[in-house]
């Protein structure tokens, strides 16, 4: 009876394990929250390196290796265990390498990050994740025991070093810069339809803070709650324009009244901008036409002012520094060797007559006369002349070779020239 009982027990145990394995292989339907495909976008986190305080270097028998876990919304993903690189000790990551194989910690400043990862974790994020608490980054360690070169035992117990939270809306998206994806094939993205272009942040070295857990850190040294326990160097990237994501987040947080009035405000601003542009273009064109009209008017005014001056210059007789018009000269006549004028030389203005040709003429006032036959006469500069003076002539008063009466007046009479 006893052997039969043992056989039945073994059969039951074996049958239960077989049933459990078969059930585990079945693809049963799962209930998950629906994802908004319209507003969803791909969000990637690249873990470059990490550093843990008081973490000893790997030895031949025992070593502790860090692991990074990232939480976005309800999704958790973690990296593989980090690889120790002693050449990166005491240096923090300052740039993102173009190749994953060369993605190492570089730079001469910052905390020690000797553990290299190079893993990229991709999530499907929505606007709710942008408005949410952000991205949680957990830094953990796991112990390994080596028994020679052929056997290695991985301990299942992990130690939580610390965590940090990165705000997508205020920290990640404003720091994203556009760059072309190296694996772009020219196709469109299924989620956003924005193409292969991505926006990526520079490397950020984030401190992690111990928030509890096992209570003891690496090498059995306890962490202090609320203090920094390590650092993680990571970068972020999205496949949708960050400006559009920020605008969508701002619209979602607007009050209802402002959300309803925002389209009208945008339309008013766009209309006013279009009207201002049209007004500016018209002003530029009108200014060009006005400048041309002003130029033509200036030319016409210049010509109108120049015409009287040209007429005066053409009809003027210049002798020394005194200018007289031909009309003034023609008004003088000689009748019986007496100088007379047909009409007042300068009208009724006594001041003008006193200055030019009046009997009370001043000294050094040259006067040009004309004889009755039209030939010119020269009258010397006199100190004073009485009204209507009589000029006497001498016997040699004419010359047939001069073509006219050429006399020169003097105090005693007319002398041939």
Automatic annotation (TrEMBL):
Residues 183-200 have a biased composition (Polar residues). Residues 81-108, 178-200, 390-417 are annotated as: Disordered. It comes from the Eukaryota. Residues 81-90 have a biased composition (Basic and acidic residues). This is Uncharacterized protein. It comes from Zooxanthella nutricula.
């Amino acid at each position: 009876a006893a052997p039969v009982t043992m056989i039945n027990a073994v059969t039951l145990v074996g049958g239960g394990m077989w049933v459990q394995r078969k059930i585990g292989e079945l693809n049963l339907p799962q209930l998950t929250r629906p994802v908004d495909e319209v507003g969803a976008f791909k969000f990637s986190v690249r873990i470059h390196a990490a550093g843990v305080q008081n973490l000893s270097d790997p030895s031949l028998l025992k070593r502790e290796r860090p692991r990074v876990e990232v939480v976005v919304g309800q999704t958790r993903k973690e990296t593989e265990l980090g690889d120790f690189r002693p050449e990166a000790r005491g240096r923090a990551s300052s740039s993102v390498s173009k190749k994953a194989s060369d993605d190492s910690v570089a730079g001469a400043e910052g905390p020690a990050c000797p553990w290299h990862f190079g893993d990229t974790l991709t999530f499907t994020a929505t606007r709710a994740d942008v408005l949410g608490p952000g991205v949680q980054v957990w830094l953990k360690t796991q112990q390994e025991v080596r028994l020679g070169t052929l056997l290695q035992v991985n301990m299942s117990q992990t130690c939580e070093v610390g965590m940090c939270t990165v705000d997508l809306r205020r920290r990640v998206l404003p720091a994203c810069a556009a760059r072309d994806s190296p694996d772009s094939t020219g196709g469109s993205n299924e989620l956003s339809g924005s193409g292969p272009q991505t926006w990526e942040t520079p490397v950020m070295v984030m401190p992690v803070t111990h928030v509890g857990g096992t209570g003891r850190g690496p090498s059995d040294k306890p962490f202090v709650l609320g203090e920094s326990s390590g650092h993680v160097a990571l970068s972020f990237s999205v496949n949708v324009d960050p400006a559009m994501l920020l605008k969508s987040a701002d619209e979602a947080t607007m009050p209802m009244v402002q959300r309803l009035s925002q389209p009208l405000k945008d339309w008013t601003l766009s209309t006013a901008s279009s009207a201002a542009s049209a007004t500016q273009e018209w002003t530029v064109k009108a200014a060009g036409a006005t400048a041309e009209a002003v130029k033509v008017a200036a030319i016409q005014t210049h010509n109108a002012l120049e015409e009287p001056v040209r007429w005066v210059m053409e009809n003027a007789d210049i002798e020394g520094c005194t200018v007289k018009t031909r009309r003034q000269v023609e008004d003088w006549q000689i009748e019986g060797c007496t100088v007379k004028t047909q009409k007042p030389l300068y009208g009724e203005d006594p001041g003008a007559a006193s200055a030019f040709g009046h009997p009370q003429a001043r000294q050094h006032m040259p006067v040009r006369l004309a004889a009755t036959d039209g030939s010119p006469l020269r009258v010397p500069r006199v100190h004073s002349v009485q009204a209507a003076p009589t000029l006497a002539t001498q016997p040699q008063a004419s010359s047939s070779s001069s073509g006219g009466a050429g006399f020169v007046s003097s105090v005693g009479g007319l002398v041939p020239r």
